[in-house]
Amino acid sequence: MSHVPKDLKYTKTHEWLKSNSDGTFTVGITHHAQDLMGDMVFVELPQKGTPVSAGKECGVVESVKAASDVYAPLSGEIVEANAVLSDAPETVNKDCYGAGWMFRLKPGKPAELDSLLDAKAYEAWVASEKH
Amino acid sequence: MGLRTPLYDNHLKMGAKIVDFGGWDMPLHYGSQIEEHHQVRKDCGMFDVSHMNVVDVKGANVRGFFRLLLANNVDKLKTKGKALYSCMLTAKGGVIDDLIVYYMDDQWFRVVMNAATREKDMVWVNAAAKEFGGLTVTPRNDMAMIAVQGPKAKEKVYQALGEALRAPAGALKPFHAVTVGELFIATTGYTGEDGFEIILPAKAASFTWQMLREAGVPPIGLGARDTLRLEAGMNLYGADMDETTSPLESGLAWTVALEPTDRKFIGREVLDKQKAQGVPQQLVGLVLEGKGMLRNHQKVVCNGTGEGEITSGSFSPTLNQAIALARVPAAVKTGDRCIVDLRGKSATVRVVTYPFVRHGKSCIST
Questions:
Q1: How many other C-beta atoms can be found within 10 angstroms of the C-beta atom of residue A110?
Q2: Looking at residues B75-101, what average pLDDT do you find?
Q3: Which listed residue, B141, B225, B241, B317, has the most CB atoms within 10 A of its CB?
Q4: Is B239 in the A-facing interface, judged by CB distances under 8 Å?
Q5: pLDDT value of residue B303
Q6: Who among B32, B227, B295 is closest to A93 (CB)?
Q7: What pLDDT was estimated at residue A1?
Q8: End-to-end CA distance of chain A
Q9: In a 3-state reduction of DSSP, which class is residue B334?
Q10: Domains of chain A, CATH where assigned
């Protein structure tokens, strides 16, 4: 059921990253994550200019069912947050890899890129979490 | 594997996400619980509530039994088919369960109790019935229950299950029931909308569910059932009240009949005392000012009067903001502002009278 695009990178905490041509990365949460959470009702994102550290929480998503932290997949600086989600958090459910993106960040430590998962490794991780 | 209702396979076929609810494998939603919520407010939907505990109590003095068993007074039930909402209390005045009792005839009352409390309810009711004497207590495990709720629910039920229902079911006032063939049809519900709760033979459940679906009634999961009941300001057993709380501090004083004073129902002595001394706490509605979520057990700080706790917190799809029921000090008044700790941040909530929503419309003052 869960949808994992091949051209993205992933974290074990269920964020996805897309590499942009300007050197920044667009970040969101995966289809699997939004499916587990159910209907989103509140998204709180870091503001532009916020420094973030890899693996540290930098935002919150809340569904009717539960609250969950969003973790920065890479260290760096937030260059843009998706303003749409404040009034339309359900966009995360409807289009998690598109209009439901959460923020763009400029990475500060290129070496961290090596620790990200590719689609195959992320699928394996999701499967292992189910057991 | 948990207990399953006769509609379990229907839920799977309709793409339900199944969760455990009080030992039962029940549908949480069939895609989006918020869309299901709006569907019920704007049109209608159907709920499998077959996990609820339907019990028939029969005997020559069945009314006398319920006069003792329940905090509300079944003597209010004067016409056949009339229903009454009540708590069943411990001797200490704590709530064992909340239920609906229907007066079917002078020798037959039907009770619908919660699923998660089934075992202890049956122990309690059976023991009380044995002591009272002359009664038979029959759990109707051979029955299923489907609630159809929403402004268009009644029309769709006639369309799906036959025009023959229109006259008897359409004539029912709120909180009444009628038996039509093998169907027991009641104008009760847990959503704050029009509609029916239908008790029917388990073997007819799947077919009936499909007929309703074909008439354009989509299935609604327990997720939306909870946000609908919270908007409607209806208590949830185990969250808003339990054996450690009195109905008088759970927003349920209206369901406790202290008159006439000679009706010695179980728990009465404690409630009389509480009434005389004053109850230190009350159940109020809260609305979050600004964005975020309210959740069960969050602490509520009420300036100058003390602290309370959220008993049911969630998101209101109709109002598009977080709402809650909370048990707070008795001195807190409608319109007061309190502070709730939301994941380390202080947020302001406004105290309101509930229900929050009735018949699709907001009823809170701004």
A1: 10
A2: 98
A3: B225
A4: no
A5: 83
A6: B32
A7: 46
A8: 17
A9: coil
A10: 9-109 (2.40.50.100)
Which residues in A lie closer than 8 A to residue B343 (C-beta atoms)? 60, 67
Using the beta-carbon criterion (under 8 Å), do B28 and A93 form an inter-chain contact?
no
* Burial of residue A129 (number of CB atoms within 10 Å: 0-12, 13-18, 19+): exposed
User: Smallest Cβ distance to B227: which of A60, A64, A90?
Assistant: A64
Rounded to the nearest 5°, which phi and psi values hold at B170? -70, -25
Q: For residue A124, give Cα distances in angstroms to A3, A4, A30, A55, A127.
A: 13, 11, 14, 20, 5
Structure tokens at B29: 């939603």
Q: Which residues of A touch B293 (CB under 8 A)?
A: 41-42, 62, 67
Q: What is the pLDDT of residue B170?
A: 97
Which two three-digit tokens encode residue B70? 């329940």
Closest residue of A to B226, CA-based? A64
Rounded to two decimals, the ipTM of the complex is 0.87
Quickly tell me which residue has 């500060």 as its tokens. A108
Chain B nearest C-alpha distance from A32 (Å): 14
Mean pLDDT of B12-19: 97
pLDDT in tens, A33-42: 999 999 999 9
pLDDT of residue B366: 65
- How would residue B191 be classed by pLDDT, with cut points 50, 70 and 90? very high
| Residue entry with tokens 């948990």 | B2
Cis peptide before A73 (omega within 30 of 0): no
From the list B28, B293, B314, the residue facing A67 with the nearest CB is B293
Residue B305's pLDDT is 87
The predicted-structure confidence for B233-280, as pLDDT tens digits, reads as follows: 999 999 999 999 999 999 999 999 999 999 999 999 999 999 999 999
* Whether B295 contacts chain A with CB within 8 A: yes
